[in-house]
Specification:
Layout (H helix, E strand, L loop, with lengths): L4 H12 L29 H16 L12 H13 L15 H7 L3 H17 L4 H16 L5 H18 L2 H17 L3 H17 L3 H18 L2 H14 L7 H15 L3 H14 L6 H17 L3 H15 L2 H6 L3 H16 L5 H21 L8 H18 L1 H12 L3 H6 L2
Helix pairs in contact: 1-2, 3-4, 5-6, 6-7, 6-8, 7-8, 8-9, 9-10, 10-11, 10-12, 11-12, 12-13, 12-14, 13-14, 14-15, 14-17, 15-17, 17-18, 17-19, 18-19, 18-20, 19-20
Length: about 425
């Protein structure tokens, strides 16, 4: 509730040192454990003790953002794979914390299809097990978060969030209610229903503030600010984002990077690129995960967009090439499936812009490459993707500029050709 991750990480590490590593080779598959390890007082024995030890290590994994470099080593990656191999989808202990945290190990190994299997199996187990009503609500909320990240799954996310919300409200769980409302808000955003999203974020904030859950309140406020911007309430949305930054300046809080990224995009769209760049600079300086692949891709994409806005096209190409490499990482594709398309669209603007200083032949070749990038970008968008304003403006600008250079017939042909390219082939054009 207070986001005391460093304290949690430290205590977990100390307790981990008191016993053997439960994920050391050879991997020992976890047996089903229907009751929490804390159901009965110590001493613990057998599978209860084994699962308790695993739980401490999983809780430590949940604090990985406080020491990200430590999880980039070969030994740490091997441990993540061992965690994945220890559990099987649908085990009862993975329907509640800390067992459900094995999901993050699966996510960090980039297996998106396995993630869907896991959340589906957990819900099935919780539905079929008497007394697992809270576990069912938690698993539904988790699946809603997973599904909300994909436009083509967002409708299912709304249904899961609705059911989770009903259970948490009936159980009187304010924290779960806030999380379910937040998951539903994200699903609304993916479908372009920004006013509904804003209403759910505001409702979630009421519950978080009642609990004095400051970190959760700040994250919800940042998401609210973004939803307000997208809904057309730009003045209020910007004010909410700036309030988050003012209240939590200098603190380690996951709301800060989100607020800076949202605000930077809005500033760029309203002609304030110097301040937008400053927000990204502060984001890189303050956010410990800024160099982690998916966040680095998001920031690089934003920096490349600002370069195109300021007509620094050569620099934009340099930056977007880095972004294209990171956007294709399996984890990036799970968290931000639209990012490859966005980066290719920025690349198209940069290619067309650099062509202005070339000979007519070179300019035409670059514009053709840009049109192919746009064809690939459109083909790569997730089904039923609803573009937020920044993506829409970027795409409209790119299409208009490439058409202006090539003419309609040549543009249409090159765009169609790009639609048949793989991502790697399209990125190679940049």
């Amino acid at each position: 509730m207070r986001d005391l991750r460093i304290e949690a990480r430290t205590w977990c590490r100390e307790v981990m040192s008191l016993g053997p590593d439960p994920f050391a080779a050879p991997v020992r598959p976890a047996a089903p454990l229907w009751k929490p390890c804390t159901e009965a007082p110590p001493p613990m024995t057998g599978e209860v003790l084994a699962e308790a030890r695993r739980g401490v290590h999983l809780a430590h994994l949940a604090c990985m953002d406080t020491e990200l470099d430590a999880w980039q080593t070969p030994a740490a990656q091997a441990k993540l794979r061992a965690i994945v191999d220890t559990y099987t989808p649908g085990l009862p202990q993975t329907c509640r914390s800390p067992g459900l945290l094995w999901f993050y190990a699966v996510m960090l190994t980039g297996d998106m299809e396995h993630i869907r299997v896991i959340v589906d199996a957990n819900i099935r187990t919780a539905r079929e097990t008497p007394g697992y009503e809270w576990e069912l609500a938690a698993c539904l909320q988790m699946r809603a978060n997973v599904l909300a990240n994909r436009s083509d799954w967002a409708g299912d996310a709304t249904r899961d969030a609705d059911e989770s919300l009903e259970i948490f409200r009936r159980l009187g769980d304010a924290w779960g209610t806030a999380e379910a409302l937040s998951a539903r808000a994200e699903a609304h955003e993916r479908m372009g229903a920004y006013r509904l999203a804003a209403a759910d974020y505001e409702a979630a904030m009421v519950h978080a503030e009642e609990l004095d859950a400051r970190s959760q309140s700040a994250v919800l406020a940042a998401r609210l600010g973004s939803a307000l911007l997208e809904s057309g309430e730009e003045e209020r949305g910007e004010r909410v984002l700036r309030d988050v930054l003012d209240r939590f300046d200098g603190t380690v809080n996951e709301a800060m990077p989100a607020a800076r990224l949202f605000l930077s995009g809005h500033l760029a769209l309203t002609g304030r690129t110097p301040e937008a760049r400053e927000q990204l600079r502060l984001l890189r300086k303050e956010f410990a995960l800024a160099h982690f692949v998916v966040f680095d891709a998001l920031i690089l994409g934003s920096e490349a967009w600002l370069d195109t806005v300021d007509e620094r096209y050569e620099q934009a190409l340099v930056t977007v090439r880095d972004a294209l490499g990171r956007a294709d990482d399996p984890l990036s594709m799970i968290i931000a499936p639209y990012l490859r398309s966005f980066c290719l669209t920025i690349a198209a603007i940069a290619l067309t812009g650099t062509g202005r200083t070339d000979t007519d032949t070179d300019a035409g070749a670059r514009a053709e490459a840009a049109a192919r990038c746009l064809g690939a970008a459109d083909a790569l968008l997730p089904p039923r993707h609803v573009s937020p304003r920044l993506e829409s403006v970027c795409r409209e600008l790119a299409h208009a500029r490439v058409r202006a250079v090539l003419g309609e017939e040549a543009y249409t042909a090159a765009h169609a050709e790009g639609g048949g390219l793989s991502y790697e082939e399209a990125a190679a054009l940049v």
